[in-house]
Write a structure and sequence with these properties.
By secondary structure, the protein is α+β, with helices and mostly antiparallel strands. The chain is 68% helix and 13% strand. Strand 2 and strand 3 (72-77) form a beta hairpin. The protein is extended.
Length: 110
């Protein structure tokens, strides 16, 4: 594999780690805080087994960091620059939604 191809693969793998609604929800939940798995189960409203799988994917991708304190595992966002990636995506989606609403409004007039 060429160096350029490897760079694209690394980028794609990183973006894949974000490509799940629950993972995005986890990142937002941890935006300004550290939380234990138990807190997230209650706060997000998911089962621990499913949550743990997604936390692991985000940790392996380098998006989250974890630490253990007795029996509890705490997670936090490793680098807040991830929000510099997520904000423009939200903005693109807002624009897309506005355009769709405009098209639908015009269809209603026809």
């Amino acid at each position: 594999m060429k160096d350029k191809d490897l760079v694209f693969k690394i980028k794609a793998d990183f973006l894949k780690s974000l490509a799940h609604p629950l993972r995005l929800q986890i990142i937002e939940y941890l935006k300004n805080r550290e939380a234990s798995v138990g807190e997230m189960v209650k706060g997000i409203g998911v089962e621990q087994s499913g949550l743990s799988k997604h936390l692991s994917i985000l940790r392996i991708a380098g998006i989250l960091s974890s630490r253990q304190e007795k029996a509890a595992v705490f997670y936090s966002v490793r680098d807040n620059d991830i929000f510099h990636v997520l904000r423009p995506i939200a903005e693109i989606l807002r624009k897309k939604l506005k355009e769709s609403q405009s098209v639908l409004a015009h269809l209603g007039q026809v």
